[in-house]
Design goal:
The complex is a heterodimer of chains A (471) and B (284). By secondary structure, chain A is mainly β. Chain A has 1 helix and 32 strands. A 7-stranded antiparallel β-sheet of chain A has the order 2-5-10-7-8-15-14, with no helix packed on it. In chain A, strands 1, 3, 4, 6, 9 and 11 form a 6-stranded antiparallel β-sheet that branches. In chain A, strands 22, 24, 25, 27, 30 and 32 form a 6-stranded antiparallel β-sheet that branches. Chain B is built from 3 helices and 19 strands. In chain B, the strands form 2 sheets. In chain B, strands 2, 4, 5, 6, 7, 10, 15, 16, 17 and 19 form a 10-stranded mixed β-sheet that branches. In chain B, strands 1, 3, 8, 9, 11, 12, 13, 14 and 18 form a 9-stranded antiparallel β-sheet that branches. The longest helix of chain B is centred in the first third of the chain and has 11 residues. The chains are: A mainly beta (471), B mainly beta (284). At the A-B interface, loops of A face helix 1 of B.
Chain lengths: 471, 284
Amino acid sequence: MKTIKLIQFKIAMLTLVLVAVGCERDISDDAVLSEFPNTGDIYTDDPVGLTDEFFISFDPAEGANTEGFGTDDNEAYIGTSSIRIDVPTPTDPNGGFIGGIFKDRGEGRNLTGYDALTFWVKGSTTVSIGEVGFGTDFEENRNAVILRNVALSTDWRKITIPIPNPSRLTQEKGMFIFSAGTQDTGGIGYTFWIDELRFEKLGTIAQPNPIIFNGQDLVQQSFTGSSIPISGLTQTFNIASGQNVTVEAAAAYFDFNSSNAAVASVNSLGEVTIEGSGTATITATLDNVLATGSLEVTSSGALPAATEPTLPQVNVKSIFSDTYINETQSDFDPQFGGSTTQTTTVNSNGDNFLIYTNNNFTGIIFENTVDASALTFMHVDVYAQQAGVQVEFQIRDIGANGEINTNIFTGQPNADDADFRFTASGLTVNGWNSYEIPLAGNIASQKGNLGAIILAGGPNFILDNIYFYVP
Amino acid sequence: MNNIYNKTIIKIALKSFAVVSFLMIFSCDPDETQTVATFNKLVMADEFDIEGAPNSAFWTYDIGTGPNGDGWGNNELQHYTDRTENVTVENGYLLITAREEAFSGSNYTSARITTQGLFEQAYGRFEARIKVPYGKGYWPAFWILGNDCAENTWPQCGEIDIMEYLGDELTTTFGSAHGPGFSGADAITKDYVLDSDRFDTGFHVFGIEWAPNYINYYVDGDLYQQITREVIFDETDGEGEWVFDNPFYIILNVAIGGNFPGSPNSETVFPQTMLVDYVRVYKQ
């Protein structure tokens, strides 16, 4: 035992001396504890550390074009080859947009020694690419980072995507993601080339300014058992050119804090769960920098149940209710483009609710159309936790073609669609408000193919017991 | 750290190399100690160790918008004050803070302190350790000005800019000399560019070593410019005059906007502070 102690002491002394003499401010490259390779290069003249089939497209079933991706030996910023991406027109039979990821096919890479993903890009025309980034691996996508609207030049230009918090990238497979369409060119296809794609240690990524909830200090009522996603997460850095670059950053880059864990807890994915009555403030830091934005959430306990419906099942075709058998399955989170809505289904004491947060517009899309020819009303219960909530219900008959046809400029029904709109306003706060909405107006005589309920405004409300009926 | 130079690189034998190395190994001092200057007799030092207003034995204030009310000849946007909000000493640093606020007809306030009439010296090594703000419109400087400008109108009285920097060029500082035949936009000047680093994220040592026949400019351990009578002659086709034999006094300031840096933009962060760890002057 004595011998062992002595050896340990000597080792300790040696270490002390080394520390004192070495004056290292950072762990040296030799001492990196990583088991995973720290290769920075992704594409130079060939893919690096990727297989030859390094591009994984978004799902072709959703319109992603897998034909427009390749390499080009006639264009290169440096060397002999670049990545060539042909952005298709929306009506291209092979798919109307292009995008996907480059994935490390090994165990992943340790990128903690880098501070940015950089590449050179050149376009056949001056247009903006929808999004580029990294951290998406088509597995958990834990470390997703997105830079939007990257303006192309017709000459080579270097793009810098700062890493929000490199210490989190200890084993990353998502090397690159891009998505591009022709929204900015009126449907005219174009080409862009990418070269010298790599993670770099620039040393000039500075002045971090992390943000949650888009920088707002939100105050929200909630109830025990519900959860609230932390949204609007960004990180901004000032880069060597003097520009501020803002990327959308996954929750995994942040550290979240609740001022009262008995009221609200936050997990590493940025989901706030209400645990009990009281008030808690949720804040975040990113690499020890306090993020702008917060959430003060007050819970008065569990949400009371809405009044139990009493109509017999034969009078009812239900969309969402614990009392009735549903007429059809529905998509409660259709993720319309431009929608800011967060929809969550919460079970509280055996009762299910639909919670809508930050709604501008979303919808409930029926999997099968509902024939309401013999029915005359829609029932819905609405719970508001703030004064001034107004929700518009647009009951949509989608016609014989079975598709939702909407004029994208006006939001009005197109083609064989028709709707009836009703706004619930003047709601009693912190209580359930029941509405009996007539199937009237344009759907009074066209309600055999009800296909959706579009929900506009709010922005925060809770729904229960949505069903069509005849009294 | 590798650096990029625009002109000739001048190498100087490092007499004190061994000593400096020894000190660095055992002191672990994070200072970016410079090793290129040779004047070592300390004649003036403000380490900014006393909290409160800057030491009145060394420092006085330039107040307002310049003698002609024209933003110090450059259409600068700030009003200089001697208020604590704009200039103070805290935690071992001089803090000069630029603020966006309505003040006496200006939209910004800041400070400019000088050793005029308090410490003036011809020749010597003038050195300061400084961290600067960032963002479009910031124009901090560490410079010296001839003490005879009242009699010999600028640029005849001479100006030596030891450190200038623009907040939207984060990796670049520049050293200049102004005199008759080479002033304003035609000053003799040179950039020094950091590689893999920037001036707003850490302290850097900015200095000159000024002798009767040369001015050497350095950043940290790197000499990047030498101005001599010959350089002035060459750069001005013989028109320029060496006017660097009088006593000069020190100026530290943070200017906002004006002809040179341009106005702040919506992303420029206010307030921000220039931190000065020390100002030291040596003679040969």
